[in-house]
Amino acid sequence: MFAIEQYIRNIPDFPKKGVQYKDITPLLLDPKVMEATLDALLKPLAGQKIDKVVGVEARGFLFGILLAKELNAGFVPIRKPGKLPYDTISATYDLEYGTVSIQVHTDAILPGEKVLMHDDVLATGGTASAACSLIERLGGEIVACNFILELKDLKGREKLKEFDIRTLVSY
Fold first, then answer.
1. Which residue numbers are catalytic?
2. Cα-atom radius of gyration of the chain, to the nearest Å?
3. Phi, psi of 63 (to 5 degrees)
């Protein structure tokens, strides 16, 4: 097994002073590392029925689409306002460095569908919590919240207590 931590780069003061950004793009540079990361994300999902994988803009798309393909599931993008061309619903939340909104198409998830919510990082939990609220408003049943890494000090798990949370590495 590889040590995923060696492929996550720290970027100080990005996107603003005081934020320690965790950059996952080094995971994408080596196809063997990318495959090992995908395998590690898939392993706990073995045998679970998943109809849709939700990926949150933008870095949640990277492995979200790969997960959907491997799970034989549809992929649902959750995006910033104005990026989706069809009817949408929205959720607003606070980040560690501002307030933002996300949207999903109203027909992306059908009632009763089993959904895996995927994003790259669990930080404050705002993004994931907002994504989960959109999934549930459409009638989806969240199987798990899946992340590559977690920033424990920001206590994002507290906003997602009701869900099965899976991360590959914690800081």
1. 59, 96
2. 15
3. -90, -20
CA distance linking residue 110 with residue 140, whole number of Å: 6
Its pTM stands at 0.93
Task: Supply the DSSP string of 8-75, one letter for each residue.
Answer: -EEEET-SSTT-EEEE-THHHHSHHHHHHHHHHHHGGGTT---SEEEEETTHHHHHHHHHHHHTT-EE
- The model's pLDDT over 98-119, given as tens digits with 9 standing for 90+, comes to 789 999 999 999 999 999 999 9
Query: CA 26 to CA 8: how far, in whole Å?
Result: 6
The torsion of the CA quartet 164, 167, 168, 169, rounded to 10 degrees, works out to: -140
Rounded to whole angstroms, how far apart are CA atoms 155 and 124? 6
Residue 138 identity: L
> CA–CA separation, 145 vs 100, rounded Å?
20
